[in-house]
Structures are given as C-alpha cells and as structure tokens.
Amino acid sequence: MLARWLQRQWFEQRRLTPALWLLLPLAGLYGMLSWVNRRLALPRRLPVPVIVVGNLIVGGAGKTPLTLWLAEQLTMRGWRPGIISRGYGRRGDGVMGVRPDALPNEVGDEPLLLARRSGIPVWVGRRRAEAGAALLDAHPEVNVLLCDDGLQHYGLARDIELVVFDARGAGNGWRLPVGPLREPLRRLATVDAVVGNDFTGALPVTVPRFPMLLKPGHFYRLDDPMQTCSVDSLRGRGRLYALAGIGNPERFFQTLGSLGLSCENHPFPDHHAYSLGDLTFAGDGILLMTEKDAVKCAGLTVGETWVLPVEAELSPALIDLILEKLRGRQAA
To answer: Residue 131: in which H helix or E strand, if any?
Structure first.
C-alpha cells in the first residue's frame, strides 16, 4: 500500500505534495549516502568489456527486454555475450549460475527469465564484479558482459552505460524517497545513450536517444508453454483477468487494452512473490500475465492462464553505436 501511494505521489502529482515535503530530510540523507558510496567504490575491471543496462528511477522501465535484445544483436554479430545481475528478491547474496530450471527464489525472477529466453550464460551475485569473474571462469568463451540493473553498482567498472526510461519519465524529478530518482538527472551527462520505452519527454542533457517498442508476441499457456493462442481466440471466451507485478503494471494493462482485450486488472508490487491466495480472484475466468510473473507462478493451480511475451524493437543505430565503442575498447 505504501509503495503504491508513493508511486502515485511521484508519477501522478508531478509536484511536491505536503506529505512529500516531510520526506525532504530523508532525500538529503539518501543523496549524501549515494555520493559517499560512489566516492568510496573501488571499481574492479574485468578482462572483457562490460555493458551496463540500468535505470535512474526506482523500479523497472524495460531493462530486461532491452538486455535480451542486446544479447541477440551481439550474438548475431559474432560476439559471445554473458549476463550478470544481482538477482533481486532471491535468498542470499552469493555468486551462482542461473539454470533454466532454477527456482525464482534461488536466483531472482528477472535472471531466471533472462536465462530461459536468451540461452546464454547468466550469473547472479550482489557483487557484480565477482559474478562476472565467476561467469568468465565457467565460460571462457564469453567476450562481453551485459550487466542488468547495474548503473548504481560502482564496484564494477563498465565500458558502456545505457539508461532506460518508460512513459513515466523521471516523475517529479526528485531523489528518493521524495521522488523516484536513484541519482540526479545530471548523471545522464555521463552515460552513452538513453533508451525510451514509450518515453518522449524532455531531458536536461543532450545524449543519444533511441526509442524502444515492446512488441507483443503470441500468448502461451502457463502450464503448457508449447500451447499458444492468438488474441482473437481470447475475445468472447468469458471473463478476463490481468495480473502484473512489474515496475509499471499499467504498461502491461495498456498493452492488453491496445490488443482489444477488456480485463479486470490486478497490479502487484515489483518482484512480488506470489502464493495461491493471490490468484483466487481469477477462479471464474481466464488469467493473463507477463513473462516475469509467469516464472513465479509456475506450479500454482490458477486455472486457465496465458502468458504474453514481448520482444524489444530498436533502431540498428544503437547496436552500431555499441559496436563502435567495443571496437574502441579492443583497439586501446
């Protein structure tokens, strides 16, 4: 409830409410601690280039589909990428590889989805540099690393930084907890590119910007992924329910609406650990969910449930920019 209230204050009000004014001292403290953390960090340089995909805002904005797109594009061009991530929400902080049959509470929901979708090595660890080193030891063929959600993890040296914004933009523009920003917007002056997932707003600095479109695929059944269905086959089949526990659940609900599906929407917090009790509302109908939610709902008896995958579409100019920087690193 508190998280949802803060989201409304940050992204809907667009200005400081009286309640947020009371949080200003905490924002100052957060900013000071962030500054100290960055100043004291001792970045570890790994033997291969590192591409960081991250956010300035708290929560998701489309990092996972962008990471999958980058992995595919790099592979198509002869590179052998691997992925490292913290594994938010899992038990423990240690370093480990992510098997496609792992449990989400062991490795995290997003790394598990990345491992299943990409087919390339994925390792997790609170210290990303250690996770990267372990991945390279286990997979010496890997010659470039993608770090999912590592923009503020300054213990890992990086060669390229990409920042993702979605339609919510920077909200009210304030630092946590008064606003959604992990770092000030001036941080964008030091990144290599901004990727806009349905974001067309203004930014205070000039950096290369690339639009990203998330294209829906075919629904597949939660308990039988080989079984797929079209949007047309879901219309008129009874009551539809939609579930989303991502950074911006409204984005998923809007996607379903754009497909002509009228659903009763049920948002959950990002990285929510589902139980059967969370899904009882769908007992008399058909449940639709994201792939990120699906990795945590597998095995739950929820009746007829369909999962909607999405694919990122971006301009080839982005991968061209990245390859140019990677070649510069090799030349150096």
So the answer is: helix 128-138
